[in-house]
């Protein structure tokens, strides 16, 4: 029963980390505006699934590798930065939905899930979550999966707000010019997250 005492602090921690701006939320806003909530759902589920696996892996030893070997951290930063710049370019140059072509599509589940392993905000969340809230007693594997699962349950409505916010913005955008400005702005904000990665 003592583990139930962690639920309140974990909830507050995950809300504060999941609802604040970051690469995932910026991309979800752009995706919600361009593709709508339904087509953005695989992207959202990929974020949750990727973070779940990452958080559990951190609790089971991956975090130690990350802390002991700086080269791993540097490699992730480089890979994450390059991929984020690529995504920023795709967002910035996306055609307006009503004038789009077949190539325009949101991130799928696996792309979004894989990105979490190169997303520094996800690493910070996972390392802090497991270091602060993983119960010391009981089965470590079970505790890691339960904590990671509960954390992503809390994160779901938080990231959904960003996709919904993007969808609401999309309804106000009229004409190709306004879409170009919006997509360019969202692409620039996504690219700006690289400074957070390399900082």
UniProtKB/TrEMBL annotation:
Originating species: Halomonas halmophila
Bilayer topology: Multi-pass membrane protein
One GO location term (cellular component): plasma membrane
Residue spans crossing the bilayer: 42-64, 144-169, 181-198
Alphabetized UniProt keyword annotations: Cell membrane, Membrane, Transmembrane, Transmembrane helix
Gene Ontology molecular-function annotations: amino acid transmembrane transporter activity
Coiled coil: none
Protein name: Lysine transporter LysE
Subcellular location: Cell membrane
Main location: membrane
One Pfam family hit: LysE
GO biological process, one term: cysteine export across plasma membrane
